[in-house]
Write a structure and sequence with these properties.
seven-stranded mixed beta sheet, OB fold (Dihydrolipoamide Acetyltransferase, E2P), Immunoglobulin-like, mainly beta, flat, five-stranded antiparallel beta sheet
Amino acid sequence: MKRIATIQAVAVLLVSIVCSMSCRKEAGPAPAGTLLFRFDGNPRELSKVSREMPDTNDFLITVTDEGGSVIFDGIYCDLPESMEVPSGSYGIFVRSGDFSGLEFSSPQYGDEQCVVVPPDGVMTVELGCRQINSGIRLDIAPGFLSVYPEGVLFLKAGGERLMYSYSEKRIAYFSPGQVSLVLLDGGKETVLLTRTLAAQEILTLRVSVSEDQASKGIRINLDTARVWTNETYRLGGGDSKGGSYEDALTVNQALASVGREDVWVSGFIVGGDLTSANASFSPPFKSASNLLLGPRSSSASRDNCIAVQLPAGDVRDALNLAMHPELLGRLVCLNGDIESSYYGMVGLKSVSDFVLR
């Protein structure tokens, strides 16, 4: 079995710093303790992508002490069942394989933990196995080439650049952060859109030619998987997106569209009981007058969410979590006005219509 080199030095350094801050090193030899390792079952989220989860025996694992020194660096199947170590803090870094930049068909799974081994005690490390990079896939309509015969599509992320051919079906993976879709046509580069994705998020963009040939626009729709998102984008289409629930703004787009009125926004119902600083993300809920709309169903903080005011009447009766806690996690499209502040957040007010997905 091929042995693989060390895992990213920067990550090792960062977690080592955290470990050193969390546990103060005592003078003299520390009493010994024991480290045990095991994977915490199978991943909870299975992808639609036709790729099996990699064998955890082949995962790369690095263990560092609180000073940053490496005490094990290899593959999981070569890791001792138990390790007797001095008591103190340890950084654990697990990866399904090396990954850097922007690559096709390269999902990366793993975990990072900082644990404390007690004197004369045992610390069992439950290793997670979740996707830790992000992905994007393009589905390019056949008519695209006829309108842009010299056009070439590229993805840009983390300083890397990857050409995406019209027939390409694979997912391009990149480290969590920003990714841009770029059109090169007639020697001129145009950034069509830029999105910020977290670990586990897979963005599928359906790229088609706008029906309005006079504007020579590009239309982009989305699909879902792992943590999938949905949106539409039209090059040269102005503010036409959001005009219907089928073409609703995503939460991220709505956050950048303050001031628009009578617009459709699509997102997941993730919480309620809003105050100026807090929100509740689990039942029971008390307030019937507001919701929190998130970019994904697993959102568990106010960051990147939109506050929704539920007006008295049919909308409130149908959507409030106090009466309908079963709606938590549901995808909904709402029609209203995007305003700059509602409970200290960007808010959707004057909601007049909705569609539950």
